[in-house]
Amino acid sequence: MTERIKVLITNDQKKVKIPTGVRLLVRRSCHAVLELENFEASAEISVTFVDDDEIHKLNKKYREVDRSTDVLSFPLGENGNYDENPDTGAKMLGDIVISIETAVRQAERYGHSLQREVAFLTVHSMLHLLGYDHEESGIEAVHMREKEETVLTKLGLKRNDSYYMDDAE
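User: That's the sequence. What structure does it adopt?
Assistant: Structure tokens below.
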């Protein structure tokens, strides 16, 4: 089991109200990926919710792709080597940026909850932070999808299932 995981979540958009329970779900998603991957060290991850305009700007600036997207991953490590927070010794895995506007549209398109879509995007991006890359190889894309579904099922978010969480959790 992982030691200590810090997930810093920031909402930098005003177009979509973040539903109750989503922040906890993002944290649980990060924890579940690290557990699946047997990541033993303490870790820090940053997750930021933005709107379509902001993710478009980031996609253009950092990937030279002139359109919005659903999620961007900014890994701080390579080949399992990560910068460490000098104060805590935690491995700094990187940043996840999610367009919550796109997540809402995709949840509607795929017929599942916004919670499942945000969890999927978080899990997908976490795998990128850990070095997975679906764009180089079809086999790696299949491998990533299997891991994503394994984590989402573990979280109770199987494909086309809804995820409910009461405010007490």
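DSSP finds five helices and six strands in the chain.
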